[in-house]
Write a structure and sequence with these properties.
Order of helices and strands: HEHEHEHEEEHEHHEHEEHEHHEHE
CATH superfamily: LigB-like
Helix content: 40-55%
Strand content: 15-25%
Number of helices: 12
Structural class: alpha/beta
CATH topology: Protocatechuate 4,5-dioxygenase, Chain B
Number of domains: 1
Radius of gyration: 20 Å
Shape: globular
Largest sheet: 13 strands, mixed
Number of strands: 13
CATH architecture: 3-Layer(aba) Sandwich
Length: 348
């Protein structure tokens, strides 16, 4: 009897360890809402105080989302997620500088993970079988599997509380994008989009209602702390830099998305001087190339973008949401501020 007890205990203990090993841990425990109570309270505040300007949900298949602290950027997240009810998400994140140092700054590849679950405020979030299809069928030179990289990068986890609030039974496919040139993006996105399209067709999924694409990005990171203050560090500099962000968003995202539009965006984010420090300078063009190809393959249509809202830490200040565990991870002043936008992409 004792032997049987120890065997059962060992199996149970091993099972607990296995689950812990294959659940992706939370990276940012401060900036986002990781309890159901906190997330419900936060959405309740946004429902009463955020203006979504009536953007339609019909035909919406993809979006660009911020990943900054909720107490700063909550009103920019809101108009996008308010209109999403899909049950499966392809989340295209990026590779921040702090992460690149940890993983020795790889380039020209996507970074996938092998976790079985990601943590969410309501329950564990399952990883879609699509990830296995990608790992099985994507050219091995186009990606690597690195759980450590996915564990220290917050650009994907930031989106999970919002999508899970509106649909508890979600599945995700997390993809991190590293630095790569446009030719490399075209190659990888073409093969990746074909794999995703096959998965959509095989499972009879509908774009927008069954499967949705999210691209994670904040806009300009401005000030001496980012070594990025080409216009100075005062109120006029802030206006000049935010006006430039808004111009880029209007000219490059509020249009039909094709290779030409993506090239215009990379010209702005990679080559133009002074170059705005958008952390999504690779995730956005790669994500838009992939989404546009999937939509063309599965629906025979193009996509067109609408910018829902742009703002920044100085303009927004701190949202007065009380009695949560959420906090701030960075200051907001003329020497350290961050811009963000939310955008949606519609079938055309």
């Amino acid at each position: 009897m004792k032997l049987m007890f120890f065997i059962i205990a060992a199996l149970l203990f091993g099972s607990v360890n296995l689950n812990a090993q294959y659940t992706r841990p939370i990276k940012d425990t401060v900036g986002f809402a990781w309890s159901a109570v906190d997330m419900d309270r936060f959405i309740g505040y946004l429902n009463k105080n955020a203006n979504d300007e009536g953007y339609p949900a019909n035909g919406l298949v993809a979006g660009i989302s911020p990943h900054d602290d909720y107490l700063y950027a909550g009103k920019v997240y809101y108009p996008l997620y308010k209109n999403i009810r899909a049950r499966e998400f392809v989340i295209i994140g990026l590779t921040h500088g702090t992460v690149r140092k940890v993983i020795k700054d790889p380039a020209d590849i996507l970074i996938l993970d092998n976790f079985q679950l990601w943590k969410g405020p309501y329950a564990g979030v399952k990883v879609s079988p699509l990830r296995d299809e990608i790992q099985k069928n994507l050219n091995p030179s186009y990606y690597t599997i690195n759980n450590d990289a996915q564990s220290v990068e917050h650009s994907i986890e930031a989106l999970i509380p919002f999508i899970q609030h509106y649909n508890r039974e979600i599945k995700i496919t997390p993809i991190m994008v590293t630095a790569m040139d446009l030719d490399r993006m075209e190659l990888i996105s073409s093969q990746l989009s074909q794999i995703i399209s096959n998965y959509i067709d095989k499972n009879n999924l509908k774009l927008g209602s069954d499967i949705f694409f999210l691209i994670s990005s904040d806009a300009d990171h401005y000030g001496k702390d980012f070594n990025n203050s080409p216009f100075g560090e005062d109120e006029n500099a802030h206006k000049t830099a935010t006006d430039n962000d808004k111009r880029i968003a209007k000219e490059c995202l509020m249009t039909e998305i094709n290779s030409g539009a993506v090239k215009n965006l990379t010209d702005e984010l990679w080559d133009k001087k002074p170059t705005p420090l958008w952390c999504g300078r690779y995730s956005i063009p790669f994500g838009l190339l992939t989404v546009s190809k999937v939509v063309k393959e599965t629906a025979g249509k193009n996509i067109e973008g609408k910018v829902f809202k742009y703002s920044d830490t100085v303009t927004e200040g701190v949202l007065p949401v009380k009695n949560t565990k959420m906090g701030l991870t960075a200051p907001a002043n003329f020497t350290h501020w961050c811009g963000w936008l939310s955008a949606g992409f519609y079938l055309k």
